[in-house]
Amino acid sequence: MNPPLPELIHANLPGHRKRVPLLAPLRKDVASIGPPWLPVALVLGAIAAVAYVDHLVVSTSLVYLYIFPLGISAILLRKEVSYSLIPVCILFHDYWSPRIIHPGIRIFDNVIALLCFSFVVYVIQRYIEQRELLAKTIQQQRDDLLQDLELAAQVQRMFLPAGAPAIAGLEIAGMMQPSKGVGGDYYDYIPINANTIQIVIADVSGKGVSAALLMSATAAAMRLEANRDRNMLQQVERLNTEIGSVSDPERYVTLLVAEIDTDKRRIRYVNCGHNSALLFQAKTRTLKRLESSCPPIGLNSEEFCELALADLSSGDVLVFYTDGVTEAENLLAEEFGMERLSAVVQRGSSLSAEGLMDDIFSSAASFSEEVGFGDDVTILVVKCAFDGSPV
User: How much is the pLDDT for 21?
Assistant: First the structure.
């Protein structure tokens, strides 16, 4: 279908014509920067200036000065345009230069100038083409890397729980935000029966892809161990052997495994070098730390841990986290720290599990707003309501 007549008239108006004639002489990367007429005017002005100086000087030939405008044209203009300017410069030198020399010598000088100018333009154009090719290759590699990282992030998210399980008497919420697309933090909820659940939180030393790979191995091994045996001490011992066999000595995993029993109203846990979890006790409105009892996983060939336990009451709140929360820094290099985290937990103890989790994250994010998180951030919150009261 032909366009309406008004559109045809509008398109053919002088102010609405395509700008192809101006853009055509420019290189693609130059055409997108600044006014399109400026590079052309710069080259033509440089040629005119050299021609004028060449016309004024009689004592010697200044043909070599045309190298400068031709060099500029090789940088800013397309290859065909740059080469076409070479004979133009030679003609300007022939007709504008007042020097009178033998025709044979003039022809010889022009041929030498033609060869030299062509060589200069070729070298500059070749360099720019190689630079553009290198930039394109780097951009392609960067795009491929980002695509691979996104794929790795998707795979990593598969190891994280899709949602909190339904355990009577408990409200659970968790989140993990990597600092570099993929990260070394891991958490999981593993239901044992209708009244018991196992909570796992881990942090691999380091950040980025290497930490994410070890995290994936840890998550897979932890799942296998959880399905195999419910003895947390034996789980940790076997996990230490498995992780130690696939990681180098500089890599280790801090791990906290906790088992919450709503019937017995207690938590049993093993803390392998991980940050101390916080237990807010509603009756006394005090905080208790679930301290570490053994070295991180993969650090030593043998792991000797102790199983600890704590009683729980309705209204109690458990907060598990990684050091990305407490080590978040502001512009003054001050850390968010345990004191601020404890204050947020006590202040928000009446919130829902998800509300308290969001409050902790937003508090740490606001504290380090100018700097941003320097490490992966993982937060798990468990609220107890054993007597059926709302959590």
Answer: 47
